[in-house]
Amino acid sequence: METGLDPEASHEAVRNVVVLAPMPMEMDAIVKAFGLTPTSGEPQAPCVGLMGRSRVRCTHIGMGPTLTRRALITMFDEADASDDPVHHVMVAGICGGLDPEIPVGTLLNPELIVEHARGTEYRHRPPGDAPRHGKLVTTDEATLDLDLSKQLLSDGFLGVDMESSAVAEICEQRGCAWSVYRCIGDRWVDGLLDERIVAATNQDGSGNMAELERLLSEDPALAGRLERLARETSHAARLAAEAAVRGCLALDG
């Protein structure tokens, strides 16, 4: 795995860790928490650095299981070709909260990751000794179906995202350790999201600014909801990134 690190510093590292960021906001939080450096001047270029005895590379992958699988397969193929293996994959960012009693900003450390489409379960074994609790479900796309949210809650799920089960799937196929760092950034019970906002989100996780401006011109009252959503999701992304840092340090024992 080519990192571009200072050779005098990289000899201290004993493993390669990749941190996946589905959204630009999440990548910004990861880069800041890990103290990473961009590999180029291109927007959302991979960023690299050292954390403990790990060489860390953060990559923006976009949203959803399809893009996640594609990014991981490419990453593992390139690592195999260069004979520089990836030892641990992390995904860090926000998730939707399903339990009205669990507030926004709560870190989840689930026991199980479940792919909603097929019901496949993956046992979560993150580094460190933080207690694990409950289940996280991965769906193919964002949903605002209140009945589905209630059903997932009744099935024991605390949060929902769009990437974690795909990380588990590909990493276990390739024999690579993995871990998930998710913090609740929004909840269905708060009603901040609606179909218009979801439709104005690009597949790479960025906002379609032209569409958002159009929505605001039609519905100025939407501004307050968007401001709260941006504030709370940014805070959650920071907490998730900081949890990933702790996980990375825990790899050193």
3D structure, described in words:
The protein is α/β, with parallel strands linked by helices and 253 residues long. It has a single domain, classed as Nucleoside phosphorylase domain (Rossmann fold, 3-Layer(aba) Sandwich). The protein has eight helices and eleven strands. β3 and β4 form a beta hairpin. The longest helix has 29 residues. The two termini are 23 Å apart.
Helix-strand layout with pairing:
Layout: H1 7-10, E1 15-21, H2 24-34, E2 37-38, E3 47-51, E4 54-60, H3 65-82, E5 88-97, E6 107-108, E7 112-115, E8 121-123, E9 135-138, H4 146-154, E10 157-161, H5 164-173, E11 177-187, H6 195-199, H7 209-218, H8 222-250
Parallel strand pairs: 1-4, 1-5, 5-11, 7-9, 9-10
Antiparallel strand pairs: 2-3, 3-4, 5-10, 6-11, 7-8
Helix-strand pattern, N to C? Answer: HEHEEEHEEEEEHEHEHHH
How many β-strand stretches? Answer: 11
Question: Helices and strands: which structural class?
Answer: alpha/beta
CATH fold field value: Rossmann fold
Helix content: 25-40%
Summary of the model, kept short:
With 253 residues, the chain is α/β, with parallel strands linked by helices. It has eight helices and eleven strands.
